[in-house]
Automatic annotation (TrEMBL):
This is Probable inorganic carbon transporter subunit DabA. Coiled coil: none annotated. Its main location: membrane. Forms a complex with DabB. Its cofactor is Zn(2+). Belongs to the inorganic carbon transporter (TC 9.A.2) DabA family. The lineage of its organism: Bacteria, Pseudomonadati, Pseudomonadota, Gammaproteobacteria, Oceanospirillales. Transmembrane segments: none annotated. InterPro entries: DabA. One of its GO terms (cellular component) is plasma membrane. The gene is dabA. One of its GO terms (molecular function) is zinc ion binding. It is found in: Cell membrane.
Amino acid sequence: MRATMRESMKQFMGEPAAMDATTSTSQQSFQYRDALKRATDAIAPVWPLDQWIAVNPWWGLKHQPIEQVSHDLNRRAGQPMTMPAQFYRHAWETGRITPHDLRQALRQGSYAFSEQRLVDYLALPAKPITSLCSAWDILEAQTGFDPIAESCASYFDQHQQRWASCSVPSLYYAWKKTVQHDLRWSTEQRCSLQSLPDNAAAASEQVAADWELTPDAFEVLAHTLLLRVNGWASWCQGISWHTPEQQKEAGISQLVAMVLAWEWLGVRQLNQQQKSEWFAQWQAADAALTTHYDHEALWCWQHAYEVGYQRMLAATLTAPSTSSPPAAQVQAAFCIDVRSERFRRHLEQAAPTVATLGVAGFFAMPVTDAAIGPERALPRVPGLLKPTYRVGATQPQQQGVKRYQKESQRQSVRHAKYAPLSTFTLVETTGIAWGWKLIKDSLRKQAPVAQCDAPAGLFHTYDGEPIARHEKIALAKNLLTLLGNLTAPLLVLVGHDSQSENNPHHAGLTCGACGGQGGGMNARVAAALLNDPDVQQSVQQMGISLPSAFYVLAATHCTLTDRVHIYRDKQMPVGLEAALTTFESGVQRAGEATRLERASALGVDETTHVARLKTLAMRGADWSQPRPEWGLVNNAALILAPRSLTQGKMLEGRAFLHDYHPSEDPDGKVLERLMMAPMLVASWINLQYYASTVVPELYGAGNKLLHSVVGGHVGVIEGNSPQLRIGLPEQSLRDGEKLHHEPLRLTVVIDAPKERIEAILKRQPVVADLINHRWLWLTRIGDEGVECYTPQGWQPVLAD
């Protein structure tokens, strides 16, 4: 539904036509649509709160060098993508950045600076940021409100809104019609807006025709305006990823029409001189500008800051191992999550006959959990994947009906709270009951240990039919290939979860590989699958080696308390009881050691194991606690290598660890899958933490104490602002006094021949973009130590 562009309006702008006169109207229309597509693609998606996953906010710009994106963001939103100069000055003066790091950065990045010039730069006063200006500023100053963000909050607040809205076909149409009843708008503004088409695409094209900017300038303007409502733009973009059936009515094409129309209204209120200045500014906005000196210098310092971490990491990895563990009785596969690194290290020290593995925490089970109750099913897969199967009902029929009725009653109360007359009736009828609930929740001393029921079976999501034998075998083979060589008779798949009350961002503390859900269900599904005798026999016939006596259990690791709940299975052979006892004893001691290691960063100063565990468990039950745990703060590296490379070495809970055995992967197919999946997920997590730290105004969620939830699960707003806040709250990065997250781009360490890695870069342009444009750092374990991939070739990390 696209309308043709109207005749050009040179008189309106007071400028000559920006496009060649020979360009046809249809060609111009296509060019503008293409420019608008590029502008909207530059906005990254976000997921609902109950499926919250970390997202790289610059995913749509990965085909550009990170420094260029930073320069553009600085001009369009006044937000550079580096820390201020004083941050790097402190790192330099305290030795966090050494002269070696600075020289290495200059060499790798080919920056046009000398070492002394960069040091002198840190003493210069900061210069003000000059960004592009829009007519939006004038309108906002006149009206005193933001109609775009307000309308989005109202439109998407379907779960919590107090007055039911009539059915409308699209976000843009709803906004356009609602404005006619908003007396904050002038009569002239309402009439002008009504003159635009009711169709979003047609309105965007008409605005583009009126302005007659070049397509490139139009792209810059559209992206700049979307950044003004970046949270809602990200939500609308996310709809096409996680709720595609709503894309046509509420996707980002609807929102971009709104921001363009609002700017169009602002331009109409400018005088002729102001219009000329506005047009000239945006017409030149797409011109290739020389990168500012300050901008280039800060990126060199950021590079040196990251080299400093790589130097320390390389020294740790190349240090000789001090232990030779005995043959494993138990192998425990943990999620690659950085919080598992500490626990795995302590577990192997506490129980030397337990060997640990690292794998993505959904255990290659692309499932959705169709839980009993009125709520929607929740996918338990990484955000970039779609669940192929659903987990069947897990409760007996009678118990299931009771559970459904209970959840349905709770949902009815939730909806009733926001009905128009609820203020007159609900408090009087349910006030005492809700008051008792508040008191009971306040008196609760510890959060319950997260657990999940045993799965009854796997079924196709599209037709509900049970999965076929060959599908079971394919799932098992895929997981076993990722796990590598299994030698112990008992394998434990350890998913992870967290505990926190009254926390909209709870899903961000659970398993990102499971779509913001706990990994226990995926572990139980995988364990049941691998214990199938037919499946075991079939995968062995396909060349996968398994121990003669082999059984699999599932478990859940709580990252708040570092307790591990093991899902015992009566079918487990009696002969494995001793191995299981060893594992249970080991995880208990590992939990004590891990809690001790984490305690000081959380301000937990109890001196006994029992008191420390009790305090951490109370943090999860305390609904006034803004920081139950630190989550994935300080994540900095992904290591794809055998466990022998990292075992016993202090990685400080900063590394994602995924097992990879180069000798078992001569054709590089497994490595290619790891670089296309776990590496991308780790990069998304890393860059969201980075963005929330360096650009908190645009990509951070603000102060958790001021949050209100929009739409039940859409997101949060801060205070009385209607702007949707995305990313991480301040309390997830700072303790009120200092920053707890080092803003570093991800360093990927791979144990593989350079030819194998380079071949994958040639086959996978997405991976090549991330590396060549410096969104992450690629290193490998070479004969001379750790070496970093650069356009000039592989360079040693430690050499000076």
